[in-house]
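Sequence, please.
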């Protein structure tokens, strides 16, 4: 069964560099993943807990978007998807954030979209 090790979300920002500096300086977070010049994940040093800062000026200030469930690295995405489907959920989209960084957007029983 897929084991969740942390929750995460995406926060739209108007200036990626400024937002990264703010969250790292204010909360002692560090960059844990950089997806080109569009998204940076900052998190607690040494853990899986992080959140994404997405360059999205049109939605900056609108609050968190794209809630995600971070699945234990030992669990393959296909196995996690099988667990979701066995529980009655469905896959909405699959892709990669970067090479070897796969994701799936899934819908729960009420149609809420989450990312794993």
């Amino acid at each position: 069964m897929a084991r969740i090790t942390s929750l995460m979300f995406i926060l739209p920002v108007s200036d990626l560099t400024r937002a990264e500096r703010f969250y790292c300086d204010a909360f002692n977070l560090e960059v844990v993943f950089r997806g080109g010049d569009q998204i940076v994940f900052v998190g607690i040093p040494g853990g899986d807990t992080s959140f994404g800062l997405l360059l999205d000026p049109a939605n900056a200030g609108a609050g968190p978007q794209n809630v995600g469930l971070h699945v234990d690295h030992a669990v393959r995405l296909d196995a996690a998807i099988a667990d979701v489907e066995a529980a009655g959920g469905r896959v909405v989209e699959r892709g990669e954030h970067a090479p070897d960084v796969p994701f799936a957007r899934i819908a729960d029983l009420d149609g809420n979209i989450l990312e794993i």
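The chain has two helices and eight strands.
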